[in-house]
Design a protein that fits this description.
This protein is an alpha+beta fold and about 325 residues long. It is built from 9 helices and 7 strands; from the N terminus they run H-H-H-H-H-H-H-E-E-E-E-E-H-E-E-H. Helices cover about 45% and strands about 15% of the residues.
Length: about 325
């Protein structure tokens, strides 16, 4: 544990120590912070040691979190300065209602700018409407102040919900139109088969093995592409062995195809969005995407049957004597 704490603190101190050197390579080197020189740590008793260790332990996972938040570790001295200032402000806020309100406002602003705004912007991407940041912020602030000069909170909520509904439909139509037109043209090609669900497939190699059941675990090699040719996944990206999973634990288009393919087959699947990920953004896959997969079914891993309780006949066969209840004694008159 001490080693973990020491490493975490060393990373923090090292980042602060080298930040000035790294900052010199940047255009704003004139604004490089001067690392604060702290007094040496003196641990005089057990409480001191425990308190220091507790603080160090709380930094576990901090650096990865900062990187996730977009913090450049070349500026760790700035982070440490902000951290120390924040600690002092929080101490003041605990005893000052106005300072408390201001610091909470800053936290909400961070959530608004880094979380709420990007989420709404994603909702309105590829729609007739455009989200204007400054007007968005003003609407938020007026609602917090209960200022209904422009519109009431109820009017704002109703209008936003209506816009979400209309734009979602427009977005779905725009994004599905390309996939729909692709599938309509593809269905007319030789050797492309279309099922009742809308799944399309082309047999590249016909196998002669067993056909999996939904509950079977299958082994497959595959490559997945968008209809523009972008490769978003492949079994080769995850190692040299085929991928392994249950046939009913994947998207609907895969399950349908796998439960028709004999082992040894290689098919090309053309999966409409409603049999794929639908409106979900999944990695590199945009919402409402039609997908193309080359799938080779290598084998089936049958689930081992669950052991059943032995019957009396089984016990006799194994040479064991089953327990027999004694017959009831006659009742004397």
């Amino acid at each position: 544990m001490k080693k973990v704490i020491a490493l975490a603190l060393a990373a923090l101190v090292a980042g602060a120590s080298f930040s000035t050197l790294d900052a010199k390579k940047k255009k704003d080197k004139k604004n490089a912070p001067v690392a604060e020189v702290l007094a040496p740590v003196v641990l005089t008793n057990g409480c001191d040691s425990m308190s220091y260790a507790a603080g160090g332990a709380m930094t576990r996972g901090l650096i990865p979190y900062l990187l996730q938040q977009g913090v450049d570790t070349a500026y760790m001295a700035d982070f440490v300065n902000g951290l120390r200032q924040g600690i002092e402000l929080q101490k003041i806020a605990n005893n000052d209602p106005r300072e408390k309100a201001r610091t909470v406002g800053e936290k909400i602003a961070s959530t608004l700018v880094q979380g709420m705004l990007p989420d709404v912007q994603r909702d309105f991407t590829d729609t007739p409407d455009t989200l204007i940041e400054e007007v968005f912020y003003r609407g938020f602030i007026d609602a917090v102040k209960n200022d209904s000069t422009v519109m009431t909170a109820k009017q704002a909520e109703d209008l936003f919900k209506e816009k979400q509904k209309v734009n979602k439909a427009a977005k779905m139509e725009k994004l599905t139109k390309i996939g729909r037109e692709f599938l309509e043209a593809n269905a007319k090609k030789d050797s492309v088969i279309t099922t009742a669900s809308g799944l399309q497939y082309k047999v590249l190699k016909e196998g002669d093995g067993e056909v999996p059941q939904r509950s079977d675990k299958v082994k497959v090699n595959y490559e997945g592409r968008l209809i523009d040719g972008t490769v978003f996944d492949a079994s080769s990206k995850h190692g040299n062995e085929p991928a392994s999973f249950r046939a009913d634990q994947v998207i609907k288009g895969w399950t349908e195809a796998l439960t028709m393919m004999p082992v040894g087959s290689k098919w090309q699947l053309f999966i409409p969005q409603h049999l794929a990920y639908g409106e979900r953004q999944t990695g590199q896959i945009p919402p409402y995407s039609t997908l193309i997969f080359d799938v080779e079914l290598v084998g089936i891993e049958k689930a081992e049957p669950k052991p059943q309780a032995p019957k009396d006949d089984d016990i006799l066969i194994q040479g064991k004597t089953p327990t027999v209840k004694p017959a009831a004694k006659p009742v004397k008159k």
